[in-house]
Amino acid sequence: MSVRELVVLGTASQVPTRHRNHNGYLLRWDGEGILFDPGEGTQRQMLRAGVAAHDLNRICVTHFHGDHSLGLAGVIQRINLDQVPHEVTAHYPRSGRRFFDRLRYATAYRETVTLTEAPVDSDGVLAVTPAYTLDAHRLSHPVESYGYRLTEPDGRRMLPERLAAHGIKGPDVGRVQREGSLNGVPLDAVSEIRRGQRFAFVMDTRLCEGVHALAEGCDLLVIESTFLDEDERLATDHGHLTAGQAARAARDAGVRHLVLTHFSQRYSDPEEFERQARAAGYEGELTVAHDLLRVPVPKRR
Q: pTM here?
């Protein structure tokens, strides 16, 4: 049975707190696992969340600030210690290759796994698989940063009433799907496009074109909201979003489920992020993330 869910490993910005670990997010997408921004302590959070090294197929780093990348050393050594049998691909900004290299070889260990590096240096497609296309868009932060977007290919939904009207049933349903027509009845006459699901991951950034491109039409959007709206100037100065800015971007993009995360330690009331997001006009499903939370990708419409 396919599983599509977000496993939240950490939600703090800059420094961890008693209740929030540094960043870390695993997207389970059918049989694959994509780990985003493994900050310090990610390996331990994986253990607490029931995530194994064998679950990882890709690692996507948005940028090389410590709260988004210091966990790389432990995660990379763990996949080698556990002798993960499949290739693992790592995406990260090419300008940060020296940081990736330092983290990859931070200490001595025996390499047993094929870890393929696929650095990002521009907007565009990073990988195409039968299950999804992964692409990246540049964000606006003091260091080079990219957000990631996963798009499932569109499929076909068969329409029972139209099949019945044309007398198509049993094995013939499969035939018309495979062959595109049956006895003069085209596939379009008995089916409709089933829109593929979309997921995006947006971390440290000011509002910019990349935010809107990543968020457009997403079923599930994970986005930073480091600051509350009253600190918007501070957010802009440091290259971050407020709860209201993130929510308005999600509203304008038609996002179905919005996950706010990456909270500054200066705030003690997480519910205020939800209140400000709602005040900004976002009406979809809304989650203020906490560590070890699981968020299912919304079912298709």
A: 0.93
